[in-house]
Specification:
The complex is a heterodimer of chains A (246) and B (272). With 246 residues, chain A is mainly alpha-helical. Chain A is built from eight helices and no strands. Chain B folds into two domains: 2-203, 3-Layer(aba) Sandwich (Rossmann fold); 213-267, no CATH class. In chain B, helix 6 (161-174) links the parallel strand 6 and strand 7 (180-185). The chains are: A mainly alpha (246), B alpha/beta (272).
């Protein structure tokens, strides 16, 4: 446990700078979403005062877009979990650290997961606060999006959570397996697999049975992808094939 | 103790075997010089010993551990200074604070002495250092880690002439007697005064595996004039005569080893 916390500290200290830049980028991205929505919704309202219902609509749309961005961000973090150790020198440093493979794998996963959840929520909250400040400064109705985003992630159904974790685990597996273009490759392979999975599910009736089977399949896939990712990580070498870590 | 038995290895995606049926046994408390031409597998062997590569066949054992399983108890006794290495963009102090807890015998005193020998300050921003300075910092950290096995791959590459002297001094002072050091290099002059065992590697096989004292008992390295080449095993012309290697006869004084001469003689098959 002590060594795991040392590993966590090492990952945190060596990885915090890009994380801060990433979070700052997220704030800017969310602000751009807010401002773009104001511009788009007010296209036919040039010079007029923005009506209150429109501000609420914008807040809702921003929340929906925010949720999509956060989902994609979490998935992207899983894909790029080991991106900084794909080259020889950083990989050597990481693999030679006196900690077990499990400690190295878990510490990075825990740290990145914690960062991606906290970082994205904080980024959205900050962007929402700045948006609220701007609404107040320009005399518009106050309408927050943060609570809707929070509800989306906290009060969703079982299928949402299981698919969320399946995608995360799949991203993790691809992140460990591929050396380059993690996000693109994972997205392409993921879309194909998901389409096949949905096609197979569509043949299952009745709906209740389909839901249970999909749920169980998602849980099994999550566990399998995670175990495979870890096993593959244990077999990592300092020199591998050009595109895959085999 | 390090034991390599019947090792077979090729890089992923390559058909040619780099090692085939390779055997090696290294004892503790020695400074080994691993010599060989470019591409003969010196770095690969270090990577295999440190668990960064997995053998295709045969076994590698390091004090009973299988290196490629990367057991934490094994890793805390092994430090590798590779040719390409990575230092985080932070201060030396923060870096040391990060890695110090992983190595039970890490010594701040040794680090201070090494840095001072290398004429480096304690208060360093690692991102602002030149490649040579980074190398000196990394080697100081490696020595301070106090691991039982320390491996250095081309440690003098990128070091200027005074730094090479400093390197020899630092290693000679700070290597504890109970520890083992393997230096892989093709810059033989930089390390010949340090070594007490020579390993010469050539495509798939170990051409020479011998303690330096046995070599200096058996051979003499001296200058001979062109007309006085009797008994010379191997010679190379130099400005002061021929640098020569010959069998040591009774009554001949012991000489310091000339690794370049020995290396060339061995790789040409003149010495076994």
């Amino acid at each position: 446990m002590k060594r795991f916390s040392q590993m966590l500290r090492y990952d945190f200290k060596t990885g915090i700078r890009p994380m801060i830049w990433f979070s700052t980028g997220m704030v800017v991205l969310f602000l751009l979403v807010f401002m773009s929505l104001h511009s788009l919704q007010n296209m036919s309202n040039i010079g007029g005062k923005e009506p209150a219902y429109l501000t609420y609509t914008i807040a809702h749309e921003a929340a929906v877009m925010g949720c999509v961005i956060i989902d994609l961000f979490w998935w992207g973090v899983a894909c790029t979990l080991f991106r900084d150790v794909q080259k020889k020198a950083p990989r050597t440093s990481m693999l030679m650290l006196p900690a077990t493979n499990l400690e190295k794998f878990l510490s990075r996963w825990v740290y990145m997961l914690a960062f991606s959840v906290i970082g994205s929520f904080v980024a959205f909250f900050v962007a929402d606060m700045l948006h609220l400040g701007w609404l107040a400064a320009t005399g518009r109705t106050h309408a927050t999006s943060a609570s809707q985003v929070f509800d989306y992630f906290m009060k969703n159904d079982k299928m949402f959570y299981s698919l969320f974790f399946t995608f995360h685990a799949f991203g993790l597996l691809c992140g460990v397996l591929f050396k380059k273009f993690h996000i693109v490759v994972t997205a392409v392979v993921g879309v194909i697999l998901f389409a096949v999975f949905m096609q197979v599910c569509s043949y299952i009736t009745p709906y209740e049975t389909r839901e249970i089977i999909c749920l169980v399949a998602a849980i099994i896939a999550t566990i399998t992808f995670t175990i495979l990712a870890y096993r593959l990580f244990c077999r990592w070498q300092v020199v591998t094939r050009k595109f895959v870590n085999l | 103790m390090i034991e390599v038995n019947n090792l077979t290895f090729n890089y992923p995606g390559q058909k040619d075997l780099l090692f085939e049926g390779f055997n090696l046994r290294l004892e503790e408390n020695r400074i080994y010089g691993l010599l060989g031409k470019n591409g003969t597998g010196k770095s690969t062997l270090l990577y295999l010993l440190s668990g960064l590569l997995r053998p295709k066949g045969g076994t590698v054992s390091l004090d009973g551990f299988t290196p490629h399983l990367r057991d934490a108890d094994m890793l805390k006794e092994v430090f590798l200074v590779p040719e390409e290495y990575d230092l985080p963009n932070t201060t030396l102090n923060s870096y040391v604070r990060l890695i110090e807890p992983f190595y039970p015998r890490f010594s701040r005193e040794v680090l201070t002495v090494c840095l001072s020998e290398f004429e480096l300050d304690q208060d360093l921003q690692l991102g602002a250092l030149s490649m040579g300075q980074k190398k000196k910092v990394f080697m100081s950290v490696a020595l301070a880690a106090g691991t039982k096995l320390l491996m250095m791959d081309e440690p003098t590459n990128g070091l200027d002439i005074p730094s090479k002297t400093q390197f020899r001094k630092v290693v000679a002072q700070q290597m504890e007697e109970t520890h083992t050091l393997i230096i892989s290099t093709h810059q033989v002059h930089d390390v010949e005064a340090l070594l007490d065992h020579v390993l010469i590697l050539n495509q798939r096989e170990l051409l020479l595996n011998s303690p330096v004292d046995e070599l200096t008992d058996k051979y003499v390295f001296t200058l001979r004039m062109p007309g006085d080449m009797d008994g010379v095993i191997y010679a190379e012309p130099s400005l002061m005569g021929n640098a020569s290697m010959l069998l040591r006869q009774p009554g001949m004084p012991e000489t310091q080893i000339n690794l370049e001469l020995l290396f060339n003689a061995v790789t040409k098959g003149l010495v076994k």
